[in-house]
Amino acid sequence: MPATLEKAYSVGDRVDDFVLPDVNGNPVRFSDVTGSWTLLYFMTTWCPYCTAEAPHLESELVAKFADRGLKLVVVDVKEPAAIAGAIPERFGWTSPFLIDERGEVSERFAPKKEGLAPEVAIINAHLVIDPDGVIRFAEYLNMERFDIHATSVAAAIESLIDGGNDE
Question: What's the pTM value of the predicted model, to 2 decimals?
């Protein structure tokens, strides 16, 4: 399924709609699974930071803001469904879990970091997207300040949902 994204994104950009398959190969349109606010999370099965944070992502972080319309959409980066497919069950996720096997969608969201391939730079990234489809917050993996409970992400979501700030 080819991606239709035209450019790389940063905070303040409106996200174009895209379609990726779920773990069963069914096409899923991003706009059909987003909420009033959406936490878009990029991961892989081999990322220790992703799997450390994963048990808390939906049950704690997203649950805290679900009553205010926050939804989680997870994108697995450059792995086939046969490998990534066990992740949602392993962590008890009910949120959409999409497979970007070729990395085309993930690359559009990846920060540009010298010496780091986009499919690596995007891993363990959290992007908060507002009701208009605009990226309002982006946090990328920083191994020196990794927080298993993503408290900085939670603080940003709180600020955005309650105050509409652009931080």
Answer: 0.89
